[in-house]
User: Fold this.
Amino acid sequence: MANYEYLAEIEKYGRDNKIPILLDESLDYIENILKEKRPKRILEIGTAIGFSALCFSKFLAEDGRIDTIEIESLRVEQAIDNIAKVGVQDKIRVIEGDALDILPYLQEVYDVVFIDAAKGKYNEFFEHALRLTKPGSIIIADNVLYKGYVLSDYNKHKQRTAVNKLREFIDLVLNNPKLDAKLIEIGDGLIVANVK
Ligand SMILES: C[S@@+](CC[C@H](N)C(=O)[O-])C[C@H]1O[C@@H](n2cnc3c(N)ncnc32)[C@H](O)[C@@H]1O
Assistant:
């Protein structure tokens, strides 16, 4: 039996330790999509400590499952512990490694893909997401506005590459004829793309 009471503790740990877990308003927005969709299969790229995957698991179809990929071993361990605490090990599988190494091996079709990892790789992640979805699936990407830098004329050297890549990513997604996509200016910026 799942015990979602631990979620508040996991969220507090994430926020207190500056782990970039989903912001409240983005989480609310995505949860509303999931409530309606009740997906059977979710793929997440960027697990961190498992917070978002745990939140999403509440809205899975009865026999639904989540695959989530994380590159950092410590976070993988924390996510596995958190998932066990909540008691949903049968619903969430954490896969350790660089998503770009793992995604080519995935062959399932997912109802929802959530991209929430290295900003400079969103184009590559998205290509895999397109391959792993079908008409009716939804692809969501978080942090696409990168603290507002993407929509401003901010051009500081350190962030410039990521900002340019995110601008290119947003443009490609919004103009892809196979998608019905929108940019949602909440939290750190979400792309929500329905596969046609
Ligand atoms: C924004 S956090 C994920 C937050 C999580 N989705 C949540 O809301 O609870 C991004 C995570 O992606 C991981 N990451 C970054 N690049 C990655 C890659 N290439 N493959 C897999 N994970 C990656 C980071 O280590 C980090 O834990």
Summary: The helical segments are 6-16, 24-37, 51-57, 73-86, 99-102, 122-131, 157-174.
